[in-house]
Amino acid sequence: MPEEGLRVRLRQRGPIALDAELVCARGELLALVGPSGSGKSTILRAIAGLLRISEGNITCDGETWFEASRRIHLNPRQRRIGIVFQHYALFPHLSALENVMEALLELPMPRRRSKAKDWLDRLHLHGLEDRKPARLSGGQQQRVAVARALAREPRALLLDEPFSAVDRSTREKLYEELAELRRDFSVPVVLVTHDLDEALMLADRMSILSQGRSLQTGLPFEVMTRPDTVHVAQLVGQKNIFRAGVIEHLPERGVTVIEWRGRRLDARLQAKFAPGSQVAWTIPRSHVLVHTPDRLSETDLENRVPGKVSEFVRLGENAALTIHIDDPTRPPLFVSVPLHLAQHYAIASGSEIVVSFLAEGIHLMPPDKALRRDGPIRAPEAD
Amino acid sequence: MMDWRALALSLELAAWTMFILFPVGVWLGRMLAWRQFRGKALAEALLALPLVLPPTVLGYYLLVAFGGASPVGQLYQRLFGHQLVFSFQGLLLASIIFNLPFSIQPMQRAFEAIAPEVRDAAECCGLSRWRALWRIELPLAWPGILSALVLTFAHTLGEFGVVLMVGGSIPGETKTIAISIYDRVQGFDVDSAAVMSATLLVISLAAIAITFLTTTKRETLPYA
């Protein structure tokens, strides 16, 4: 039985170094996430057949699209892919309808027109058939591009940062539409993005890329909260990364005990790290609770640690807190709480508070040289 | 007054030059715009040479290259039974060569202006190379191509130095209107020279007007 979906293995030294392995099943949306220059667009172009890589292979539903060792390289026409480019790349001199019709050349003329019209209707572009791209809004242009990509009934759909050029409200609408469209298509969808929230919202699985390497692939929430390495943790925007030592494993309680700044913290059981070894640990913000000392609830809080708010910044409906635990010269903890809660509990700069790290959220990773004794020294790459 | 034979010859020469340089310019312009290859800078420099070389110098070298002593000239003589220089065909070949920069450069700029993503999109939509050429590339590059063709046409009408060197001044064969004007002035027939000059002026103005009108009309069309 042929293997279904898209299988990609690419390797090359230059001009853009690549070392990536990806699988995207039929009907699955795989997000390639990474900072600019991480090679995600290069990989997408290679899948499309617009770029030739020196080593590796690409298959789709068992058919070989590219195999360097056998000198097989199908062109984009032969691969039959649908692609939506970052700036849509609509044909500027053709109307919306004509743009979609160009993807339907296999059909005879009258059917080509009616099918293209159907596609535009399906993407809520009724009445805009005769408009040239320049007279369409960003969101409308994106829909034409999606219609053009899907009209060919592609064997794989490739999306190259298609949401980056539209405003936020349009983007959210387009997210919904994409999710809706996906229900009717069981082709592999590869989405390139640098926006983690977008990947979290849309993707079934995501792959973190850095400098052409696929570092970790998995369920988006899992990759975000349980990164394999400190590097991945930084790439997914984790700011709370610290060093600790493993004390012991208590399988009966489902707990691994670590020592952090002279305290014992219970973490989710992660037996692969030997007692006595050094580790890095991180915790998603959702697993850090903040309390004021005078209003501590009676319930036994996990991993209680006292701290002091050194910075309080309002960010829309949230408050970003910088909290120093013990020594203010050591790396602080970054927490975000809803603004109304912060106001309710009168949390402000200088407040003494109690932080609770939920054991379930404490995730251990191999230590990294880039980490200072007990905290990060390197900011995650920008973008 | 008017040397109709010379005018007809000039128009014929200009039309043939334009007709031949259209596909040549599209092919070379596209290649120079999109492909990287060794010796590209050299090729571009050579193509631009007629812009800076004095026409008589270019004409001299073409005369040497096409003459009866040259391999090209000998081959032509053997194939067609008459010499290449001082013939309409020789004049046309020279005209094509000295018009290369006027036709290729505007076309190259026009093709360079097409976004690479748009070409990628054409390929990913499943368009064949020919379909992409006539449906996407040529319409998008059309203003540049048109001005290249008009420039070539107008420039051929007015060329003097190269024509005189390669073609001589044989009535009905190589005597163009520009040479005829010169002859009339030499023969103190200033009135005829004035009429013919005015004719050339009008044709040139009309040609330039056509490009301006077409390109401005294009630009008011919405482009993404």
Topology:
The complex is a heterodimer of chains A (383) and B (224).
Chain A: E1 6-12, E2 18-24, E3 29-33, H1 40-48, E4 55-60, E5 63-67, E6 72-73, H2 76-79, E7 81-84, H3 96-101, H4 109-122, H5 138-151, E8 156-160, H6 168-183, E9 189-193, H7 196-202, E10 205-210, E11 213-218, H8 220-225, H9 230-235, E12 241-250, E13 255-260, E14 263-268, E15 278-282, E16 288-291, E17 304-315, E18 318-324, E19 333-338, H10 339-344, E20 352-357, E21 363-365, E22 371-372, E23 375-376
Parallel strand pairs in A: 3-9, 3-10, 7-8, 8-9
Antiparallel strand pairs in A: 1-2, 1-4, 4-5, 5-6, 10-11, 12-13, 12-15, 13-14, 15-21, 16-20, 17-18, 17-20, 18-19, 22-23
Chain B: H1 4-34, H2 40-52, H3 55-66, H4 71-80, H5 88-98, H6 100-112, H7 116-125, H8 129-158, H9 161-167, H10 177-186, H11 190-220
Helix pairs in contact in B: 1-5, 1-6, 1-8, 1-10, 2-6, 3-9, 5-9, 6-8, 8-11, 10-11
CATH topology name of chain B, in short, is MetI-like fold
> Which consecutive residue ranges of chain A, at least 5 long each, have pLDDT under 50?
376-383
- Kindly report the name of the CATH homologous superfamily of the largest domain in chain A: P-loop containing nucleotide triphosphate hydrolases
The greatest interface between two protein chains, and residues involved on each side, is: A-B, 31 and 21 residues
Strand order of the main beta sheet of chain A, please? 7-8-9-3-10-11
Strand percent estimate of chain A? 25-35%
Proportion of residues in helical segments of chain A: 10-25%
User: Percent of residues of chain B in beta strands?
Assistant: under 5%
Fold and architecture overview:
The complex is a heterodimer of chains A (383) and B (224). Chain A has 383 residues and is α+β, with helices and mostly antiparallel strands. Chain A has 2 domains: 6-230, P-loop containing nucleotide triphosphate hydrolases (Rossmann fold), CATH 3.40.50; 239-367, RNA polymerase II/Efflux pump adaptor protein, barrel-sandwich hybrid domain (OB fold (Dihydrolipoamide Acetyltransferase, E2P), Beta Barrel). Chain A has helices at residues 40-48, 76-79, 96-101, 109-122, 138-151, 168-183, 196-202, 220-225, 230-235, 339-344; strands spanning 6-12, 18-24, 29-33, 55-60, 63-67, 72-73, 81-84, 156-160, 189-193, 205-210, 213-218, 241-250, 255-260, 263-268, 278-282, 288-291, 304-315, 318-324, 333-338, 352-357, 363-365, 371-372, 375-376. In chain A, the strands form 5 sheets. A 6-stranded mixed beta sheet of chain A has the order 7-8-9-3-10-11, with helices on both faces. In chain A, helix 4 packs across helix 5. The longest helix of chain A is centred in the middle third of the chain and has 16 residues, at 168-183. The radius of gyration of chain A is 25 Å and the shape is globular. Chain B is mostly helical and 224 residues long. Chain B has a single domain (4-220), classed as MetI-like fold. Chain B contains 11 helices and no strands. Chain B has helices spanning 4-34, 40-52, 55-66, 71-80, 88-98, 100-112, 116-125, 129-158, 161-167, 177-186, 190-220. In chain B, helix 1 (4-34) packs across helix 5 (88-98). The longest helix of chain B has 31 residues, at 4-34. The model of chain B is unreliable at 220-224 (pLDDT under 50). The interface between A and B is medium-sized, with 31 and 21 residues.
